[in-house]
């Protein structure tokens, strides 16, 4: 994959002017993209928000990085994993950060604490691809390619539950906001809902045609998004499910040409309509009307490589993680002429 610095030097086109991206609209020249100090020296695999000003990212350089995206400066860098970071989770309202890795472990960090992990969660036999914190901050859920889902006590690091299901190679998981359920996607093309109290599957959604790569749950707990692997225009869709009606598929969002790596609900403050956003291996980010499945905005980041993760930060900002060119700060324009553009890289 190579080092990010050398890629930046090789690609002079990274600094060209970008344009507002709106479906069916003409392009209007905009200022050049600002290049800040890179957060990572290799591919970035995941990014999430810690606060409205700070993001946390992880990648191939095995580092967990806290970055002030508004000021364009690196704040903290944590090192403790022996292999690349796969997923991250933060506990809302705290300074806790949880990093999952190919080294089969999950480490807990405190942004305001020391440089060593606060807690470690070890016991999976293969790469950990999913990590989520319970709404009360007492439990941690992890999922792995070893077909198992585990529940941990955060304070002690003790494993409380483990459940293994044949062929359940976990790709992502999320805790239902304010609830007791955990949702996970798998390489067996299904989406499962777990009860964290009994640690049993309570619902399995109908299998899709392609591997399910990511999931997200709406803040009102009513709907679930899952995204699909794909190539050459086949697959690569995002599916909206109704969590209140087991197995009920509401809508599908089609338009990406390669694997849709991430699909998330946008907060209500982003525009007046209910919106979702997706990022894809085809180097594009899309924003969709949740209720109609119409794609309202598209931005292609040429030269970025696969866009593996997208995360909302405030009412008008998205952060996107890429294989080739680090982290991208995207601005969502609201009002009569909506648009989506890249404003910075780091």
State the CATH class of the domain at 1-32 and 205-346: Mainly Beta
Q: Which quaternary structure do these chains form?
A: single chain
* Beta-strand content estimate: over 45%
Question: Which regions are unreliable across 5 or more consecutive residues at pLDDT < 50?
Answer: 1-19
Count of β-strands: 33
Radius of gyration, in angstroms, nearest whole number: 19 Å
The residue-averaged pLDDT reads: 91
Supply the CATH architecture of the domain at 1-32 and 205-346: 7 Propeller
Write out the CATH superfamily name of the domain at 1-32 and 205-346: YVTN repeat-like/Quinoprotein amine dehydrogenase
Largest sheet: 5 strands, mixed
* End-to-end separation: 18 Å
Task: Give, in spatial order, the strands making up the sheet with the most strands.
Answer: 3-33-32-31-30
Description of the molecule:
The protein is an all-beta fold. It has one helix and 33 strands. It has one helix at residues 4-10, and strands at 17-19, 29-32, 34-35, 44-49, 54-59, 63-68, 73-79, 85-90, 96-101, 105-110, 119-122, 128-133, 139-144, 148-153, 159-164, 170-175, 181-186, 191-195, 200-204, 212-217, 223-228, 230-231, 234-235, 238-242, 248-253, 260-265, 275-280, 284-289, 295-300, 307-314, 317-322, 327-333, 339-345. The strands form nine sheets. A five-stranded mixed sheet has the order 3-33-32-31-30, with no helix packed on it. It has a four-stranded antiparallel sheet with strand order 4-5-6-7, with no helix packed on it. A hairpin with a 4-residue loop joins strand 31 and strand 32 (327-333). The longest helix has 7 residues, at 4-10. The chain is globular. 50% of the residues are buried. The model is unreliable at 1-19 (pLDDT under 50).
